[in-house]
Amino acid sequence: MDNTVSLHQALIYSMVTITAVDAKVGDLELTRIGRLVQTLPVFNNFDPERLTHITQECGEMLQVEGGLDAVLALIGQAVPATLSETAYALAVEIAVADLNIAREEIRFLARLRDTLGLDKLVTSAIERSATARYQSA
Fold first, then answer.
1. What's domain 7-134's architecture?
2. Closest CA to 2 of 63, 42, 54
3. How far is 17 from 14, CA to CA, in rounded Å?
4. pTM to 2 decimals?
5. Counting beta carbons within 10 angstroms of the beta carbon of residue 40, is it exposed (0 to 12), middle (13 to 18) or buried (19 or more)?
6. 30: how many CB neighbours lie within 10 A of its CB?
């Protein structure tokens, strides 16, 4: 396993990990990851053909003991402070995609927040914003 990953890999790892922590990786979540990678400016220089490989790579790391800690460490190393909120927002976006945030997802988001050194007030605003986007009448 590499000791470093690219920024794009780290951002994708944050999204993949939030889908995997509750042991229920759904098609809706995977589709949303693909859509975000194809449309957000932070992925402008990313080759979307690599998405499947990176997703599988992250999944394999999460399967081994200590894998979650290793993935979080890689994310923390690769994401600059200027994009920490973006990494967190991407994970939240995937978490709210199915309109049901599991306890495991909440715990992962807290660990991701700490890894990225984000303020609780900032992360609460990101979470509330994402929730508001997916509410229905």
1. Orthogonal Bundle (1.10)
2. 54
3. 5
4. 0.92
5. middle
6. 18
pLDDT tens-digit readout, 13-61: 999 999 888 766 667 788 899 999 999 999 999 999 999 999 999 999 9
> CA dist 129 to 3, 13, 61, 133, Å?
33, 22, 30, 6
Distance CA 27, CA 20 (A): 12
Token pair 């994401």 is at which residue?
79
Q: Domain residues of the chain, as ranges? A: 7-134
Q: From CA 131, how far away is CA 45, in angstroms rounded?
A: 28
The DSSP-derived string for 74-92 is HHHHHS-GGGHHHHHHHHH
Task: Give pairs for 79-85: CB < 8 Å, separation 24+.
Answer: 79/7, 79/10, 79/11, 79/116, 80/7, 81/117, 83/7, 83/11, 83/42, 84/116, 84/117, 84/118, 85/116, 85/118, 85/122, 85/126
The C-alpha atoms of residue 31 and residue 34 are separated, in whole angstroms, by: 5
CA–CA separation, 80 vs 87, rounded Å?
A: 10
